[in-house]
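Title: Comparing notes on inverse folding

I've been comparing how different people in this forum approach sequence design from structure. To keep things fair, I'm posting one structure and asking everyone to reply with a full sequence. Here's the target:
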């Protein structure tokens, strides 16, 4: 039986101790790098879905129909937004897509929403205010809430709000627009906003700090 010299045994013992100390750190770094890579890949897909959603809305595609929502879901594979084996949005899935039309209410909308409006801004409650003109939530809308807000009044089957509610109901005002906000519009001008939220992203290595999720927004 061969015996190692005392110095060699001591050196090997130090190596094993150092290896035991360093291994957890190296493993954490490895998983962390993998996690970041997965998050970046997912973020790229989410960005594409967000952009695709806005393009469809801008082109006049009715995104309230199941067929058109399925078109969008085809580009969101792997994000957990659709029901397994289908292109149908999952109301209990890992994310949601919000499609919102925001308008700065002006004379045209006040005339459309108020019968015999007297042209006085004071008699049109939402005059010169940013208001949600249409609103659709595709997917699981219970976990994430759009910072723009949610209409306080009835939304039609196609997502549009009634002209009277746009002009008069202050509960339909949008948040985060105008000076210092996402965009500044002129009276009766509007913008389409698509937002995508996806949770459960990556390996969740650092879950002790925060729940990993991705949020993307696109305005047109």
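Reply #1:
Here's my take.
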């Amino acid at each position: 039986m061969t015996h190692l010299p005392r110095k060699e045994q001591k050196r090997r013992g130090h190596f094993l101790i150092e290896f035991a100390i360093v291994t957890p750190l190296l493993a954490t770094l490895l998983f962390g790098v993998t996690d970041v890579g997965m998050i970046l890949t997912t973020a790229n897909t989410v960005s594409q879905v967000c952009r695709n959603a806005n393009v469809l809305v801008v082109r006049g595609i009715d995104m309230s129909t199941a067929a058109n929502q399925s078109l969008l879901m085809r580009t969101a594979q792997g994000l957990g937004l659709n029901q397994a084996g289908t292109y149908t949005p999952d109301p209990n899935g890992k994310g949601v897509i919000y499609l919102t039309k925001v308008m700065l209410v002006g004379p045209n909308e006040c005339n459309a929403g108020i019968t015999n409006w007297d042209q006085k801004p004071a008699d049109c409650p939402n005059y010169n205010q940013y208001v949600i003109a249409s609103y659709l939530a595709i997917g699981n809308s219970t976990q994430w809430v759009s910072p723009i807000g949610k209409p306080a009044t009835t939304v039609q089957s196609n997502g549009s709000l009634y002209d009277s509610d746009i002009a008069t109901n202050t509960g339909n005002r949008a948040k985060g627009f105008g000076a210092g906000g996402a965009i500044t519009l002129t009276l009766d001008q509007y913008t389409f906003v698509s937002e995508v939220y996806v949770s459960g992203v990556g390996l969740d290595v650092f879950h002790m700090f925060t729940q990993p999720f991705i949020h993307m927004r696109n305005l047109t």
